[in-house]
């Protein structure tokens, strides 16, 4: 065993095994398949969640799908023009500023 050849032992703080003893030596060998199974099960769960989220239109990759990007841009433009106050316009949104300017303009 590698630990024996190196003169090292592994003591688990949460479990009850010590590789320096005869009883604890098979513990890492028995736990390896369980750790592999847990890793594969976790990866499979994550893959399923990503697929489910992508079906709902949510995306976790770096590139956002074009349709979702367009929707986000439209939402940002609406917020920028209708709700966000602008200091250069007297702390009111551009839509309100334009409405006030139309009222101030004399009829021709």
Automatic annotation (TrEMBL):
InterPro entries reported for this sequence: Integrase_cat-core, RNaseH-like_sf
Residue ranges of domain Integrase catalytic in the record: 65-94
Domain of life: Bacteria
Biological processes annotated in GO: DNA integration
Coiled-coil ranges (or none): none
Pfam families xref list: rve_3
Protein name according to UniProt: Integrase catalytic domain-containing protein
């Amino acid at each position: 065993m590698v630990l024996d050849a190196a003169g090292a032992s592994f003591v688990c703080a949460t479990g009850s095994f010590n590789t320096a003893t005869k009883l604890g030596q098979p513990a890492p060998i028995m736990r390896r398949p369980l750790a592999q199974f847990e890793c594969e099960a976790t990866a499979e769960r994550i893959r399923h969640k990503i697929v489910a989220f992508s079906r709902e239109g949510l995306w976790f990759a770096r590139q956002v799908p074009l349709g979702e990007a367009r929707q986000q841009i439209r939402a940002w433009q609406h917020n920028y023009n209708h709700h966000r106050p602008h200091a250069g316009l007297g702390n009111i949104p551009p839509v309100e500023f334009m409405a006030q300017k139309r009222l101030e303009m004399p009829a021709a």
